[in-house]
Amino acid sequence: MRRPSLALGLAVAVTALTACAAPAPADGFPSSTAAPLTRFAAEFLGATTMPAPEATVTPAAGTWDDVVVPAGFELVLITSGEDPAAVTVADAVRRYAAAHAVALTVLPTRDDDDVEAAIEQAVAAHPDLVVGAGDGVVDVFALLTAQHLDTPFLLVGSQLPEPTANVTAVVWDGAGFRGSGLGSAHADPDAVSPERALEAMGAGVTAVLHDLTGIVLDLG
């Protein structure tokens, strides 16, 4: 009996594997988000499974207070604007970094071109987290963060309209800007207090440390 050639057998095998293999998600989210959460993550989110991508979740207040940031954690802060809300958020990030012995690099920006350059500089440094402070970073973050899925990003007091899996946001009443032309108001300086901004920073870093990313945390 004549046997099929080795080349034909390999071709059939490759075709079968290709047909079965699913393409990698372009947004960085896993194909299934129904995996059970760890005990802490479940307490933090008030849920038993990972929220759907881009979901808005209200974390349990205070669950992040005793979270320990790993030694050697490196953070890059990209700031934009000198409005009171942006300054308050940036100051909160500095306070958080000092309190948790986090290595902090600050990249101030003045316009969209500066924000773009700052993102590229931050990504090249391979930090553990890049934080955006100020509504002025949102439009450029929306365009560029999807190009750097291996870099975690955090927005404090603002959010992206369509975040990828590497972008987490913390918002609250009066601080939830979603980008130009989307009908969302800029942050209310009266709502962005030092205490609220510091609380948001703690919640956001906690989410990133526990791989609860690609979602929006709403502090209410």
Automatic annotation (TrEMBL):
Keyword Thylakoid: no
PROSITE patterns, per the entry: PROKAR_LIPOPROTEIN (PS51257)
Keyword annotations: Signal
Region forming the signal peptide: 1-21
SUPFAM superfamilies reported in the protein's UniProt record: Periplasmic binding protein-like I
Gene3D superfamilies referenced in this protein's UniProt entry, alphabetically: 3.40.50.2300
Protein name, per record: BMP family ABC transporter substrate-binding protein
Protein's organism: Xylanimonas cellulosilytica (strain DSM 15894 / JCM 12276 / CECT 5975 / KCTC 9989 / LMG 20990 / NBRC 107835 / XIL07)
